User: Which sequence fits this backbone?
């Protein structure tokens, strides 16, 4: 509803309210304070009604390990042909639009974070642009390297948690209450006993274990401890957990349906099964796990989960990964632009000629002296 329509509706409502008061024998003209108070109450009611209604716009942020296939997942979702995938440098934005059941257009904003290093300010962009009210996150991790992914998971969680806390403080009390209520509903009935031992984020988070086709061939002990670690982390933050591989069509379809659910609200239940066996691809929906199901260690914290996992699957000391960079970024084959490249080549030739002339002039002057 547009603003002029809202104000017109408010005016009509207030007018009917005052007419009823006159019919009841109250002939006193309402004061400006009365009108302002009633108008504020009506605006608050409309805001709450709008917040609980079917959303017309949602936002999905995808972040996680490098080279795990985040861009590929987005391209597959949008049915884009994937010839050569360029590395995501910072933040990339896409959007999808469809007509819902009520014949109203729905928009899904999709953000991809290229790197977790020094990404605190970048995380704020999609949150502050679209708000927390209809926000969801996919954290994609590289299961083929269980000795490395914990750093990515911990970094992603802490970045999201810190930014979300700042955003929650700036929300109005009404919206904050709605976000908190939805978080409790997402945790479900089965995990009510664990509520005091969880640190849920105020928006849906799905931890996606990528490259499952490689992970399936690892040592059973490594798979067992990796699955326990990811289940513990997903349960702690009130999230869901899904294993994925683009080479397994069934898993790729579930992930695509999950993105559609987070962005458009359908299908209502994208996870077709509930799987906790570490010998199978895990599939655990929101609020369906518990500390007692995960193991006999009881409630966990981020620090305890990381420490326990590090003992069973020693984590490599992650030096800063050396990215294969060309000496001249302009020659990077992933960012070719024919017109710009031709102009730059021409300027390089002119610069080479100038340098040659300067060098010859210098030699000539040195001979004369």
Assistant:
């Amino acid at each position: 509803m547009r603003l002029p329509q809202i104000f017109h509706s408010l005016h009509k409502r207030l007018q009917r309210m005052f007419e009823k008061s006159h019919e009841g024998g109250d002939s006193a003209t309402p004061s400006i304070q009365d009108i302002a108070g009633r108008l504020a109450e009506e605006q608050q009611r409309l805001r709450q009604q709008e917040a609980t209604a079917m959303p017309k716009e949602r936002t999905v942020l995808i972040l996680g390990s490098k080279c795990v296939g985040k861009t590929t997942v987005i391209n597959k979702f949008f049915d884009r042909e994937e010839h050569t995938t360029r590395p995501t440098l910072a933040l990339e934005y896409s959007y999808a639009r469809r007509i819902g059941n009520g014949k109203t257009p729905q928009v899904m904003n999709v953000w991809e974070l290229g790197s977790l290093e020094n990404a605190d300010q970048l995380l704020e962009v999609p949150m502050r642009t679209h708000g927390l009210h209809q926000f969801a996150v996919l954290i994609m991790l590289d299961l083929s390297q269980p000795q490395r992914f914990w750093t990515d998971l911990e970094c992603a969680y802490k970045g999201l948690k810190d930014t979300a806390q700042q955003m929650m403080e700036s929300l109005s009390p009404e919206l904050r209450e709605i976000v908190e209520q939805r978080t409790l509903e997402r945790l479900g009935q089965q995990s009510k006993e664990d509520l005091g031992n969880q640190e849920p984020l105020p928006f849906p988070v799905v931890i996606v274990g990528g490259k499952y086709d490689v992970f399936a061939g690892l040592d059973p002990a490594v798979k067992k401890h990796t699955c326990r670690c990811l289940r513990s982390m997903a349960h702690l933050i009130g999230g869901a957990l899904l294993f994925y591989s683009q080479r397994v069509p069934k898993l790729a379809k579930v992930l695509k349906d999950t993105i559609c659910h987070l962005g458009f609200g359908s299908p209502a239940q994208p996870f077709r099964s509930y799987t906790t066996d570490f010998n199978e691809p895990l599939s655990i929906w929101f609020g369906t796990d518990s500390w007692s199901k995960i193991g006999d260690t009881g409630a966990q914290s981020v620090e305890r989960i990381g420490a326990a996992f590090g003992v069973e699957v020693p984590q490599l000391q992650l030096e800063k990964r050396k990215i294969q960079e060309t000496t001249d970024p302009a020659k990077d084959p992933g960012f070719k632009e024919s017109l710009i490249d031709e102009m730059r080549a021409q300027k390089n030739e002119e610069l080479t000629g100038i340098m040659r002339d300067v060098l010859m002039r210098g030699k000539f002057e040195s001979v004369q002296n």
Q: What stands out?
A: The first strand starts at residue 57 and ends at 64. The chain has three domains: 3-51, 54-312, 338-368.
